[in-house]
Specification:
Elements: H1 5-16, H2 30-37, E1 50-55, H3 60-71, E2 74-82
Parallel strand pairs: 1-2
Length: 96
């Protein structure tokens, strides 16, 4: 998490709006994230559980998953946000 604290800012902002945020990042040390930021990463997102999926880091394994696999984590009408320009324009709903 120390490499990309902007992600921490996004999480905090969403939580300020009362949104429940699950964080999944296979590269993050869970103990470090908990100790430094109070964030407990989940091991794997649950299929069909989310109103929105935010791609906030440009890890190669997320790019290799592609939008279809990433969308699997969302509910049928969920939105896929790509904050790091990993996906093509046709694969994502919004990009900041």
């Amino acid at each position: 998490m120390t490499r990309n604290t902007r992600v921490v800012d996004v999480i905090a902002e969403l939580q300020d709006y009362g949104i429940t945020v699950d964080v999944h990042d296979p590269w993050v040390d869970a103990a470090e994230a908990q100790n430094e930021y109070g964030i407990t990463p989940i091991e794997k997102p649950e299929d069909g559980a989310y109103d929105g999926v935010i791609l906030a880091v440009a890890h190669q394994q997320f790019a290799q998953m592609g939008s279809a696999e990433l969308r699997r984590f969302g509910k049928p009408d969920s939105v896929l946000y790509d904050l790091k320009y990993v996906l093509s324009v046709s694969e994502r709903d919004l990009r900041l």
